[in-house]
């Protein structure tokens, strides 16, 4: 294995996730010279957690054509889609733009959660499907599907919602909603206490995967509470995908420097 002493390469990470932040740190540590790492954030969150290393740009590109232009203009050698599994538009744009600009694309996608004995999961395909199911399941809901998804539940007048979001919602909410602004990671003791204090009898979540927000599932299982879980959208086909930042660093080394 020989690594060139100095080869200038540029990686663009589409971020907004814990894995994306770590990947920026991992790539910079693995290639302290010769690699420029830029992370792109959508700008949805008022005070985003910044990547562990490298440069940051914030805001949309203007669709796949805008992203393809950015890749060309900034001489990007590798695009890594480390966005959230439910961020379908940017993921589709990444696949199109990479093809258009002739830049290799790697996806970093954390695995989804899997139920264990004792879980009372109700998988649904969408937030609308979750809203349809809710009235039969409970009346005090912990809703953790993000502030932009609250609108899907706004027509439900009966249940009381505890909506946990990073920033306060600005759009339509169900009439009986209390907002709790908080950002993970969340620990098990805290999640147990939250369910107990608010007498939660149903949890709604996306199948985000990862450890940072998983304790709510354990707390729900222990309390015998049903969980409405929104299935992941299908990712684009044919994109090489890895499951964690360390794997992504290794694959990026191969793709950029032929390091094996
Ligand atoms: P989305 O619906 O897939 O994307 C909508 C638009 O936002 C895209 O077309 C793009 O605008 C812009 N965008 C999204 N991610 C971007 C990025 N990393 N850098 C630059 N522009 C980006 O995305 P979303 O679901 O709203 O998620 C937005 C961000 O929040 C993502 O970075 C994602 O990783 C993070 N996030 C999402 C969720 C979730 O549940 N969806 C949860 C946690 C974190 P242009 O077309 O103008 O380029």
UniProtKB/TrEMBL annotation:
Matching entries from Pfam families are given as:
CbiJ
Keywords on this record?
A: Cobalamin biosynthesis, Oxidoreductase
- In terms of superkingdom, the source organism counts as Bacteria
Named in its record, the pathway it takes part in is:
Cofactor biosynthesis; adenosylcobalamin biosynthesis
Q: Which InterPro entries match?
A: Precorrin-6x_reduct (IPR003723)
Q: What is its EC number?
A: 1.3.1.106
GO BP: cobalamin biosynthetic process
Question: Which segments does the entry list as coiled coil?
Answer: none
Alphabetized Gene3D superfamilies for the sequence: 3.40.50.2300
Question: What is an example of a GO molecular function annotated in this UniProt entry?
Answer: precorrin-6A reductase activity
Q: What is this protein called?
A: Cobalt-precorrin-6A reductase
According to its UniProt entry, this protein's organism is Streptomyces alkaliphilus
């Amino acid at each position: 294995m020989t690594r060139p002493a100095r080869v200038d390469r540029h990686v663009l990470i589409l971020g907004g996730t814990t894995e994306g932040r770590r990947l920026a740190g991992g790539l910079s540590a693995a290639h302290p010279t010769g690699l420029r790492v830029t992370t792109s954030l959508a700008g949805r969150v008022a005070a985003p957690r910044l990547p562990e290393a490298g440069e940051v740009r914030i805001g949309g590109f203007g669709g796949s054509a805008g992203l393809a232009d950015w890749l060309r203009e900034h001489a990007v050698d590798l695009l890594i889609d480390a966005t959230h599994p439910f961020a379908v538009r940017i993921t589709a744009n990444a696949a199109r733009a990479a093809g258009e600009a002739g830049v290799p694309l790697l996806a970093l996608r954390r695995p989804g959660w899997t139920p264990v004995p004792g879980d009372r999961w109700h998988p649904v395909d969408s937030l609308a499907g979750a809203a349809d199911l809710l009235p039969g399941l409970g009346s005090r809901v912990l809703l953790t599907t993000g502030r932009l998804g609250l609108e899907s539940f706004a027509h439900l007048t009966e249940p009381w919602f505890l909506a946990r979001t990073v920033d306060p919602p600005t759009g339509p909410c169900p009439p009986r909603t209390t907002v709790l602004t908080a950002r993970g990671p969340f620990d098990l003791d805290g999640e147990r206490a939250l369910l107990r204090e608010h007498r939660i009898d149903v949890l709604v979540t996306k199948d985000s995967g990862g450890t940072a927000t998983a304790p709510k599932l354990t707390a729900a299982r222990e309390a015998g509470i049903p969980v409405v879980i929104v299935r992941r959208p299908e990712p684009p086909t044919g994109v090489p995908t890895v499951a964690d930042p360390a794997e992504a660093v290794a694959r990026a080394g191969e793709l950029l420097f032929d390091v094996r």
